[in-house]
Structures are given as C-alpha cells and as structure tokens.
Amino acid sequence: MNIQEFIDNFAAQFDDTDAEVFNADTKFKQLDEWSSLAALSIIAMVDDEYDVIIKGNDIIESDTIQDLFERIEKKR
Amino acid sequence: MSQLTIDKVRIAGMSACVPATVEDNRTLPIYKDENEALKVIASTGIKRHHKVDAGVTASDLTVNAVESILHDLGWEPQDVDCFAYVCTSRDYIAPQTACVLQDRLKLRSDCCVFDLPFGCSGWVYGMSIVGSMMSHGTLKRGILVAAETNTQNRNPRDTTVRPLFGDAATATALVFDSENARPMNFMYGVDGSGFDAVWAPYGGMRNPVTAEALEEKEVSPGVYRRGIDMIVNGMDVFGFAIKQPPRSIKELIETFSIDVETVDLLLLHQANKFIDEKIRKSIKVPAEKTPYCLEEYGNVTSASIPLTMVSRCREQLAGEPKHCIACGFGVGLAWASMEFYAGDVIISDVIIY
Question: What ipTM describes this predicted complex?
Fold first, then answer.
C-alpha cells in the first residue's frame, strides 16, 4: 500500500473539500464535510481498492488518515 | 456450506399492508435544513416511510394482509395447514404472536403455527422453513407472514435510524404442487460475532428491563436512546452488507450452477440504495431487473423482499414463471440467499390501514 495513493483515494470521497487539504496528518473527522455518509464512502472505497472491510471502530479510533492507513495495512 | 433444495412447493399469492401515516424524510425535524435531508435521501434512496400510530401492532397489519390474500385466492381460513409469523416486534413477551393470530384469523385449531423471530433475512429463512415442511406433502396450504413495526422499537429521536426504517406486514401464500412447482434453492450464513451491530441491549434475559433502561439518554450529539431501543451501528452494518450478501449470492450461483443471464429478478433486502446498488453491481445484474420499493417504504426488515414483489412486480409475477434470486441480510448478523421461480402469482393491492 502506498500512502499517497491512499490519501488520493480518501480525498476522492469528498465533493466540497479541496484535495489539497488532505495529507497523512489530516484529522479527517474534524473536516466540515465529514459525516456518517462520508464514513460509509470510505468503508466502500477501502473495500473496492484494498479488499479490506474496516469496522466502525477503525474509523472511530483513527484520528489521522495515517492512523487509518496503518489499520488497513494490518488487515491485509 | 449449508445448502438446501426444496421441491413441490410454489408461491400462490402475496399481499401487503402498511399503516396510513407517512413520514416524509425531507421534513423530519432531525435535520438542520432541507439540504441535509436531501443529501441523506440521495445516498440512501429512502424518501419516506409508513409508520404505525400508537396502539397498532405488526399483528394488526398482518390480519389485513392475510385476510386480503385469503380472499383474493378464494381460500377459507380453515384451508390453511401451516402459518408462520416472521417478526421481532411481537405483541407480548409470551405467548407467541402466531397463537394469538390463529384465533384472530380463525385458522383451524390443528393448524401448525409458530413464530420465527428473524429480522432482515427472515423472508428467505421463512421460505426455506415453511417450504421445507410443506414439501413433505401433507401440509398443502401455508401462509408465511413477514412483518415488522420498526418505528416501535427504535427511538424517534435517534437520527441514525429514523429516516431509514418503516413498518409493514406481508403475507406469502404457499401451496404444495407436485406438478407445477420448480425446485427452490437456498444458502445460509451467519456471523454471531456481529450480534451487537444491530441489537436492543435491554429487555431480554441477559439485561432485564430496569428503571435505568427506560431513561432516554443522549448517546452522541443529537442521538437519543433508551436501553430498550434498537441500536444500528451503521458503519459495521455497512461493512457487513457490502461483503457478505454478494459473497452469499455468488455462492448460490456457483453451487446451483445458475446462469445469471437467465435471472429475471434480483430481489434484495431493501437496506438502502447505496448498499443494494453495490450488491447488484457485484453480481452484474442490470438495474431494470432489480426492483426497489425503499424510496416509498424505507427498510421494513423481513417484509422488504415480499413488499417489493407485491408493490413492484405484480404484473411480471402474474404471468409465466420468472427466474428469481433473493437475498436477505441484517440483524444477527444473519443472511440467506435463494433461487426460485414465481409465476401465476395472485397479488393483492397494497392495503393502507
């Protein structure tokens, strides 16, 4: 897994937030556009792109995109 | 893999009843503005749902649905040999609601009646259970009810569930028919480690009702629940729903050598459009073969597949047998997929009660 590719995939789930806002240290749950629907889009993207099903707790316990990335890597 | 094939039983008729009161998701008081509401509607596909008034139960809706299909089929209540009630919103903790319904519907006192407390997978499980019993040939006519009043066991101030779930009752009439019925094939699945993905923690024997369990608390900003209310952990359910149902349907297709090209109808539990479209696309069934009724009725758990057939497939199912795949999935976590043919089915109008 490549972190930059993951950040790009992550950013693609947001319509109103500029892609430049996203980096490994982005605290994604603090974004204005973050919502429960955004969370579902992330879960679907991770399934499509990485063939991993993450749980609600993986999102709840991750602060940054890097945190979530590391959790997914462990599940692969 | 647990699989089952049932022969000599077919669907003769279907009916549904929904309560008259409609909640429109655009105007629910749980959103900060209509824009937010429209965003949720765009993603879930659910525009409104029907909701029972205080005092009306799933069994009340059921009586209407059953009486309607008995009438339209020209059956008398005494003709029914087997009656199964798939429902978790039971009338009383005891007895089984099916017993109460035997008397209300005037079914015979030697009729085989029982409850099946399944959720979203319930219609498919119920078809396999009732179909299997009837396939022996002595129970000639059966009624499978799939009913739920989701608005009664969820908190109206729980923003995570209110826009999604509705109330409905359905009746599926089955007949033993050794000449015209084609085999029905089933596959099952369960993941009990996800028991708390959709659950009501209080009110059973593990956590009995206490004064505290009846107190409403704000569990997260804007989300209020009592201990006895149903909790739906949306993220875990979603992760489950995009993985297991497609896998289950693929297992069904492989095990029973189904040519997907010949499938006329893919009947999915009406969870929400986002989930169901992901399932449909992974099975590669075209949109026009995948009917939806969730925009009008929301997620009505075990009733959702039969309600889709009653409200959206009446003409198709009235003619030559259609090749169908159905998949129910949810609380448990439990799921089941089936292949069947349905034709010459008498379908009553949806009753508004």
Answer: 0.80
